[in-house]
Amino acid sequence: MKLLSRKASCNSHGQDSSYFAGWQEYEKNPYDEVKNPQGIIQMGLAENQLSFDLLESWLAQNPDAAGFKRNGESIFRELALFQDYHGLPAFKNALVEFMAEIRGNKVSFDSNNLVLTAGATSANETLMFCLANPGEAFLLPTPYYPGFDRDLKWRTEVEIVPIQCSSSNGFRITESALEEAYQQAQNRNLKVKGVLVTNPSNPLGISLSRHELNLLVSFIAAKGIHLISDEIYSGTVFNSPGFVSIMEVLMNKNYVNSPVRNRVHIVYSLSKDLGLPGFRVGAIYSNDKMVVESATKMSSFGLISSQTQYLLSEMLSDKKFTKNYVSENRKRVKQRHAMLIRGLKNAGIPCLESNAGLFCWVDMRHLLSSKTFEAEMELWKKIVYQVGLNISPGSSCHCIEPGWFRMCFANMSEQTLNLAIQRIKSFVNSISESNNISPNQQYSNKSSRRKSFSKWVFRLSFHDRETER
Amino acid sequence: MAIEIEKPTVGLSKVAVSDTHGEDSPYFAGWKAYDEDPYDELCNPSGVIQMGLAENQVSFDLLEQYLEKHSEATNWGNRTSGFRDNALFQDYHGLQTFRKAMACFMEQIRGGRAKFNPNRVVITAGATAANELLTFILADPGDALLIPTPYYPGFDRDLRWRTGVKIVPVHCDSSNNFEITPQALEAAYNEAESMNIKVRGVLITNPSNPLGATIKRSTLEEILEFVTSKNIHLVSDEIYSGSTFSGEEFVSVAEVLEAQNYKDSERVHIVYSLSKDLGLPGFRVGTIYSYNDKVVTTARRMSSFTLISSQTQQLLASMLLDETFTANYIKTNRERLKKRYQMIIDGLRNSGIECLKGNAGLFCWMNLSPLLEEPTKESELILWKSMLHEVKLNISPGSSCHCSDPGWFRVCFANMSEQTLQVALTRIHDFMDRRKAMKTSN
What we know:
Chain A is α/β, with parallel strands linked by helices and 469 residues long. Chain A has helices at residues 6-9, 18-28, 52-61, 76-81, 89-102, 119-131, 148-151, 175-187, 210-223, 246-250, 289-298, 306-317, 319-346, 373-387, 414-435, 439-468, and strands spanning 41-42, 69-70, 73-74, 114-117, 137-141, 159-163, 192-198, 226-230, 264-269, 282-286, 359-363, 389-390, 392-393, 404-408. Chain A has a seven-stranded mixed β-sheet, with helices on both faces. A three-stranded antiparallel β-sheet of chain A has the order 11-14-13. A two-stranded parallel ribbon of chain A has the order 1-12.
């Protein structure tokens, strides 16, 4: 008899994908300014390392918070024993207020509708368990975060059906793409339970437009299904049009009394906005009492350490701190983003125009030897091994067009980012030298041909994708 | 605007609407009664005393003293990148120092009679998560785990709810002090077979909750033989291993494996936690220790859904690597638990109540079967209700632990002060006096 379960033996954990393979290469040969300057620079990890000094100075000024003390008195016992899955009330209150602050206080949240989980990874899986049965499906716009294949499908046995988005309209979600995805699910005999979007998007780095959000709400209203909005990057929106939360859209008079309000759920986390992925702080927000109740019980399998809940309740209750943090962090993300965009442009590499996130969605289609995913892999390998940058290939994010890559910019120092940019420039120069065309010329030639290519590319790449699967 | 006709909407999943979370059982009902009327020495001296919560509150002072002396355990020390590195650390392998600390602590608890390799330690947010995770790995939906009764009521949720796995009880009873026998194991296995259910493993809790007793070495050997002969797994939940009253009586399955040179060990997995031994349930610290490489790798990947806060890992790494601290803690904690146990056993005996002979845990297994009107579950629940509403003690009825002998109750003694325990014992004494008086007057 087979000794382990099907779940243990299958590979839905997704760890064989290129997303993780690049990571492995980096681990074998990691860049270090002093000890290993030829090593691989990690640009595949969407971490926020830009604002630690703000956190560190707060901690220095508020030593009680990490020392189990409240107003000088020890509350160690209280915290050590606190395992209530409803969560520390002071922390939940502080967290919902922080979430409201990030949304410019245009919406407010009720802490009774918030469920704490050990990270957004846990929150997303928990919502799947609550909303879908094994074999049912959720629709996700592509490209999407590779981790979803594991988080949403592995133990839940839920299926993901992609909502195909393409560069022809800046990867925006369209009504026809939604309908097509829904139809696809029907054809595969999959019952659709909902749509999951990431807003701002990972890997695109764009916040969803009001139009897209309205489309989504009409769509789920019409189909009678759920909508999950993973808003873990909401604090990294640095440019107009600014962040519009799905909750803001629901405030519209058409939806105020609609049952659709109860089918919209938000996922949040402090891993990106506050740069604290190690602390495992995630949350589910829902207006549906049953979802909150069920998710709360399920959170027993992934509670946040009370030690950490307390520290963060103190930090996030400090309104002066949070106000300053949110605005300063935004500035720094914006500056880093601009730096990478400029550097890539100088190398003749365009990016999707973005206003959020800790990464850029980079267009290297013109560097492909052919418009195929094989060529994308070829290019990716060159970039990892020869150029020494671990970036994430679009195929690992289920992008339907080959040649796009996600490059992170907030998980390293400025010097390291500069070095990465230099390496890319050299790489592009070496290609054009061998092709005998100047990089700028290459860029303008390609862009004028790109439009007529795009439809052709779309059809070609779709076929390739099918055979790859 | 025209009235919107709502199409039938998709509801929630079957898992969400099922009641396998088990929160409707008396185990939780008693908790509610306590929440509504909690005992307080000053403010509510006639309130319900919580004796249904297996918490360890007897050794906090030792932890507090440690923290006083070692601020670097919580303030990230003097390294400038201490906080940053810790905050960024989300590697599902867990902090190396933390894994080492857990392995060392587990060795110390077992008096060095078993060795633990830090590379086999998988971290999870509590034993609750560890048990569920193992179930996902070892069994498919519809399969079963065999669990000796009586068992911790939480297993019904932890092992079954989201996994779809079943529990088939291995019946143990008072005729032989609730010890697990090969016959009982065989009977449970056959019962599963007859229902066309595939058994994937046996899960034991050692020391046992709710019995408060360690499993004998010979029994462990028999269980190992059984699982090997059926080619199934053995999960040994040893979360109370540090709460034995003497150092010598606890035998871990790890020791049995070491003694047989780790033959057949790839089917054995140990669950541990700091919630009971260290009294830190709020910190969510659990581990899986597996002798099976594939299980370790898979469990590690799955632990992404339930990692321990790196802030907490750091604190505990520091604390548990301090062998002076841990040696003293283990010894002192044991002594205090033993003292509490003695207090409650004596107090109950003075009231004419006997308990199962225990040697570990935060509770005793009390025998009130002589008080039952009839030897039935219904009678037990009636008695339980009068304990709750009349005597104002929340204790756990054996039926909530799936005990096949009615009339047994789990009574916790380590989650309150000595004074409160005394109050509880007095209440029981008076209750028993009243019953005697009623009987004689009849």
